[in-house]
Design goal:
Length: 259
């Protein structure tokens, strides 16, 4: 497991016993986000120092530093095959990098404010970006073409994710809602129930449920087919093999067990 924070360090931990394996030093300012490659051999870190760093997990060696953003980098995400890395920044752009040599392949422009959330679809051919300009944009990865702009949130959008089958998109916003969208930009459903900004959202592996976390200190679990807020006891839910939620809560211990 990897963690990051305001001290400009990235730490690697052994999940089985909580032992800290190593500290990765190199960023000059706080590290906003980290992401493992699909194979788990590379870790990408996004920092307020306007850089992305790629680290070799087995020994913590810095592989390379990616420079191109004009300001803070909020988020990084690997494509499903691990060949491409996307980054989102305060400079209103999304950048696409080739992992093998760090080459900047293209810059996606169109948002009018900071981009804080990015997600590849399962095939890796579409990238979604979420912005504080209140929109989500869908881009074709191979050439950077803008496919759709999703509008409906009334405040900044900071998280976006695809369903496991790639046919739906969920977004989380400062307007306290989670929205479900089709790929053609149609707003399908709005999930309301949080009392403050929603900071993250995730589908269950079967795509039937969505978990959302909020600054109100709660995690809520919703049924995709009915907008119903799950009232199942969290412990029982975890017993039913919802590892997606178990892992999320384990990494966010300050969240209450409300669902």
């Amino acid at each position: 497991m990897a963690t990051s924070g305001g001290d400009s360090w990235v730490k690697l931990w052994r999940v089985s016993d909580g032992y800290m394996i190593k500290t990765l030093l190199g960023h000059d300012h706080e590290v906003n986000n980290v992401s493992f490659s699909p194979k788990g051999d590379i870790l990408a870190s996004a920092s307020a120092d306007a850089t992305i760093k790629l680290w070799r997990v087995k020994d913590g060696k810095l592989i390379r530093t990616l420079k191109g953003h004009n300001g803070e980098v909020f988020r990084v995400a690997f494509s499903p095959n691990g060949d491409i890395l996307a980054s989102a920044g305060r400079d209103n752009t999304v950048k696409i990098w080739r992992v093998s040599d760090g080459k900047l392949l293209r810059t996606l422009t169109g948002h009018t404010n900071a981009v804080g959330g990015i997600s590849f679809n399962p095939k890796g051919d579409i990238l979604a970006s979420a912005s504080s300009d209140k929109t989500i944009k869908l881009w074709r990865v191979r050439d950077g073409k803008l496919l759709q702009t999703l509008q409906g949130h009334t405040e900044a959008v900071w998280a976006v994710t695809f369903s496991p089958d790639g046919n739906m998109i969920a977004s989380a916003s400062d307007d306290s809602t989670v929205k479900l969208w089709s790929l053609n930009g149609i707003e399908m459903k709005t999930f309301s129930g949080h009392s403050e900004a929603v900071s993250d959202v995730s589908f269950s592996p079967d795509g039937k449920m969505i978990a959302s976390s909020s600054r109100d200190g709660t995690v809520k679990v919703w049924r995709v087919d009915s907008k119903e807020l799950q009232t199942t006891d969290l412990d029982h839910l975890l017993i039913r093999s919802c590892r997606w939620l178990h892992d999320y809560l384990k990494n966010n211990p300050k969240l209450s067990n409300q669902c």
